[in-house]
Predict the 3D structure of the following.
Amino acid sequence: MLVGYAPGVYDLFHIGHLTILRRAAERCDRLIAGVVSDEMASAAKGRLPVTPLAERAEIVGALDCVDAVHIEEVPSKLAAWCATGFDVIFKGDDWRGTPKGDALERQLAVVGVEVVYLPYTAHTSSSLLRAALTELAAGGARRLPPRSA
């Protein structure tokens, strides 16, 4: 049985999140979604998620394509591997060839875990949604960028 792991903050859950989780589930027998804690997200991104951890975990765990949720409380993917025993980890292809992606590949190669990059949904992100909501709250009428064909 091939166990996959798809970590993320999953804040302001959107189509990009759903797409990566569905694509990951197609490539393994069992998919575990790693949901990053509020503290880890804040340390990595410099701000707290809009949606609290318990709600993000419940939303992700309710998806048919997700078999289990693991809460990430430390940044080490080796720690997540020790807790869950996944065989493959899925990341957006915006990580491919970056220092973070290269480090992740080296770190997990030690335990035989493959890193699989899936297409990143560039037209929608939590950062874009957050910016749009912030502008709307300030009285602006900002719209998200149009989708590319």
In short: The helical segments are 15-26, 38-45, 53-61, 77-84, 99-109, 126-137.
